[in-house]
Amino acid sequence: MTMVATAMAGGSLAQYLIISGVLMSIGLAGFLTRRNLIVMFLCTELMFQGVVIAMVAFSRWHWEVSGQVFVIFILTVAAAEAALALALVVLLYRRRDTLDAEAWTELRE
Amino acid sequence: MIDRLWFLMPELIVLGGAVLCAILGVSRKVGVRNLLPVFAGWTLIIAGVVAWLFVYVPSTELAAVATEVPLPWLGRWVVIMSAVVGLMLVFVQAGLVDRVYEAAVAAGRVAFDPLRTTRGEYWVFFLLSVGGLMLTSGASDLVWLFLALELTSLPTYVMVAIGRVDRRSQEAGMKYFFLGALASAVFLYGFAMLYGATGTMSLVDIRTVLAEQVAETGSMNPLATIGLMVAVLGIAFKLAAAPLHLYAADVYEGAAAPVTAFLGFVPKAAGVIALMLLLSVTGWQEDGQLPQVLVILLWVMAVLTMTLGNIGALLQTRIKRMLAYSSIAHSGYLLIGILAGPGAGYTAVLIYLVAYGLSNTATFSVLAGLRRSGQEVEFLDDLAGLRERHPIMAWGMAISAGSLLGFPPLLGFWAKLLLFMAGIASGQLVLVIIAGVNSAISAWYYLKIMAIPLVGTPKSDAASIERVDVPGARFALVLISGALLVMPVALSDMIADAEAALREPDKMQTVDEDSGHAGGSAIKQEQPSLQS
Amino acid sequence: MTVSMLNILQSAVGVPAVPMDQVVVATDLRWAGIILLLPLLSLLLCGLCAAMRVKSKLPAWCTVACLAGSFVLSVLLYVNYNPPGEVIPLLSWMNLSWGDGALNSFSANFALYIDSLSLLWIMFVTGLGTLIAYYASEYMEPDLGKGYARFFAGVSVFLFAMLALVLSDNLVMLYLGWEGVGFASYWLIGYYYTRPAAVAAAKKAFIVNRIGDLGLALAVYLIWTTFGTVQYDELMTVLESHSWRAEFEGWTISAIPFLLMLAAFGKSAQLPLYVWLPDAMEGPTPVSALIHAATMVTAGIYLVARTYPLFLLEPVSLHVVAWVGGLTALLAATIGMAQYDIKRIMAYSTVSQLGYMFLGLGVLTTYGAAYHVFTHAFFKAVLFLTCGAIMHGFAGQLDLRKLSGLRHMKGWRITSWTMLIGCLCLAGFPLTSGYFSKDAILAEAFVTQGPGFEILGWIAILTAGLTAYYTFRVWFRVCAGPVSYEPGDELHDDHGDHGHGDFHPHAPRFAINSVLVVIAVGALVAATPYFMSNKADANIAGGWVADMVHDSTARAGLPGLAESQHPHSEEVSHGAHEHPTLFGMDPHKAMYFVSGAVGLIGILLAAYLHLWKRKSADALRGWLLARGWIAWLPRAMERKWYVDELYHALVRAPLWILGHICYAFDRFIIDAVIVDGTARVPRLIARWLQPLQSGAVQSHAVVMIGGVGIIVLLLALCLRFEWLGVVL
Predict the structure, then answer these.
(1) DSSP label at residue B256
(2) How many domains does chain A have?
(3) C459 FRET partner, CA 20 to 30 A, in B406, C194, C236, C621?
(4) Domain residue extents for chain B
(5) pLDDT digits over B148-171, tens only?
(6) C430-468: per-residue pLDDT in tens?
(7) Is the ipTM of this structure higher than 0.85?
(8) d(CA B223, nearest CA chain C) in Å
(9) Is A7 contained in some domain?
(10) Which CA distances in Å does C602 have to A27, C155, C475?
(11) Which of residues 675 through 694 in chain C touch B, CB cutoff 8 A?
């Protein structure tokens, strides 16, 4: 309970970094294991959010604002990527009627 | 603030060109739509000329901004290089997108529908991506670097997917996009660590902070070191350097040949420039060497990249895949120059980028300029005896592949020589020997690429290979082949220009006073043979 | 005592060194680079003509115009340059330096070194080049639209390389030119590439020349290691700054002249490397005239003259040069006596005359050598060009037994009379140019003291007689006597339908005739410099040519100067204390009579055997062959002293065996075991790695992230536990 309380009260830098690492890892694991293209894309978004949390935490720790500015740009780029990803996914789905990444293995050795 | 904008003039021009293309692309007049490559080409020409004649000339504005940027003059080289190679890519890509659709519209089978055309978008993305490459060179902080790299990459994902209407190009686009997003997350994580270790985004300030930390503790902050390593590895994706090179073969093969030519140069150049800027935060310490960890990292990456690239290319029968692997190998050579550091190493990298960009564009322009019943030529053997029917293509292929191999007296040879000499000068003899062995291995397949079109016996169906009706690719091929033969004459001028582009800000003020700048003269001693 | 080394040696021959400090860098003469560029332009135009499949004589006119431009500029350069010499920088090329000190730098740039020697050479090279290109415009007519442009492109390449060779200011550029003329010669000898003999001759010329080129390459390297420079002006300055030969340590100083000699002997066809030149006559005749008689083969003379101070450092080398030259002259003359192919006779006579020139260099008369180069260029060009005209008109007929009385045939008079002029000069008929230039060499053989130089002098006089004999054997057989002829086997298309029965020789037209006349007049006029007084130094004799040699690095071999001053040297004694005499006269004066008489005897003998009593020549041959004790002589002469056979036994056969051994080694050891083995390794690795490429996004991602993870983890561990010291 005390840990949660500390976290609620603001917490230490290490805790935020752990959260960020965990988010990265979940995203990575999801990316590597899931077959659905949309889920895979969401996993990369998760990794971006891991970076965002680290950035904000460092920014607060250094008491320096540029990290948070960076976060806004990361979110913007992530939004652009999301638009792109959805368009791509729609394109692929129309072609194959499936969202399984394994269905797209025509290009190989 | 006005000063910074003045600095960005070429990029703004490219942006304006992109907007113009977006509007003109949906024009109902087919003549206007066909003019898109012309607009794109002129945009690049104007941007290049502006950078050359107006922006990167000594001025008070520049001196004021210069201290905020690691390599303030780098833009001059990169913008002009992007404009020149970009122009060649424009020729290669002209008439690529919507070929079938436009033919149908012209034949009156379908009515023109602005929602179905993608030609305008394609050229917008092309210009934006080239603009991203130009922006990379001026990066003063991590945010800028990130945005510039993403601006370079995001449009390429679309270009791969819409370059041609084909299942394989869509698969390539998908793979490229997902793996690219993954790599972006990786280098962003590195950026975050770098920021965490130093508390600033500005590259110049990071260098100062890291130098202070080194002065205090005697070694670099481990968090910063690991952050740098992760960032370098993430950016390796843009270079297609090991271990993030795997996508390259698939994506290059799947994309249309003109798009592949683009992928082979623009993201790779952006990645190389980004690496140069990012590694500047280490300050290259007092002896001009990187911290040992980074040396080992880059060393391993270079060896893995060139070896895996060349070995991968050995067994290929499909020509685009072969060239894709060879372009991986070239990233490995470029890493030697990065490793050799500012001065000789970076000079060689800049020249190698030009040589590689031109030669690579030329090889792909052959593939872009040939067609068999509407499809691209796929196998190397299909090109056998090309000389008999299309001599220009065959000779252009031989010259450009020779330049990629490093065949004297072509430009590629001198560029490679400079790289290797810089490597030796910085003490990386073993690495250069490995690179030499790799060059020998690469001769195996490059000589095949050179010889089969020239002297091979044509296959029975060789007559079905025809030239594309748009002459752009041939035009680019002839121009580049000529340039590869002629440019070595001006090699010493190129070296001088590259050195000038690499002047560091603190040394810039003194340039006018004591004509010889410190960085430049150091290089002169290391590379005496090529100085006139 | 700070007398410079070169001065001591040159005081031996009584000539002060060329004042190298007066050799200035002249940027205002940069236009001289156009002399070099014009042949390149002509090459480009010929290439364009070939690409456009031009059917007219356009390539010829391009070449003639460009070469004429070069000639005019050369003359302008002669008028404008300042003695003793000027360096004209054109393009910087190699400027290496890797530290301070003598041997830590190397520079060789595209710069021109203009002194009178190089001017002399470029003027006759470009002048004769222009005329012969004009001649070839008619001669090569049968090839119009086929190899016409290729021929003139080859001529342009040759002129460019030759001018680069002569004008270069350093040995590296000279080497490039040297290789360039070798290549052009290969190109043009093999011009008729469908004829196996031409291809074989081209290969032979190229390979034999490579031996000499190896010598030159080694010499350039040794010169650089010994003197620290390859630029002429610096080289001469270094030579001057050393006071005695002993200051140059080591063996290199002795080796350099011998290596240079090897190069010169290869290019200028001297024993034992002369074998390529007679075979080179397989090329078109204008090429034989230009390259293999007048210009390229004199590159060896030029090389020796240019580096003459290096030869003076090692007197033995000059003795060797003299003896090789003298023996080559005799050997080639004896072979020439017994040949029937007139072009081949001229080829052997070229070898023989080149021998004279080397003899001149060896006996310390660079003036004589240069003068003979100059006159020989004219009269031998005339002789070859007349041979070419005959060959052209009689469908390739060159056998002197099958041609007779051209003098009386319509349209062949100019050819006959110009040939007579050439023959007179070559035979050394009194008061012709060849007479004076040959005398200058012959007399010096008696003046200069050296090992057996007097014997050498008599050999040279004997050779002069033989020369007169074989020269006029050709003229009396071909041009004099009753009219009769047989066509050769190369009937051109325009005669093809006539068949053998009614063959009409077609006489040369304007282009050939005019060139013949101009060069023949030139051959006659070339005698006049001998009577001119000298501007540079009144003590020397020899007129304009001597003036030209006087200002150059080869000035040590100027006879006049030596006698006017007091020579004292043990090593190279030229004009020693008691003046040598010949028949109680000064050798120079005596030689006028001796060589004139010998020449006349040769001509009369030829007239008897080949004009008045033609049967007696065959009778004499039969008589000689019937006598067992002397029969070997005509046989050996006809078989060219068995030199080709000797080469075959000594060089080719062992090489053939060695080649097959190497081939077997290469095939069964290197290829089978090593190459295939090493080639297999990368491909095996590639096969092994291929399964990693399953093509799915995730498998790529796994490898990527796995790679990043492993690398970062390993390096982080290194960082954490400071293993770096261990790793590195």
Answers:
(1) -
(2) 1
(3) C621
(4) 286-502
(5) 999 999 999 999 998 888 888 999
(6) 888 888 888 888 888 888 777 888 888 889 999 999 999
(7) yes
(8) 10
(9) no
(10) 106, 36, 13
(11) 679, 682-683, 685-687, 689-690, 692-693
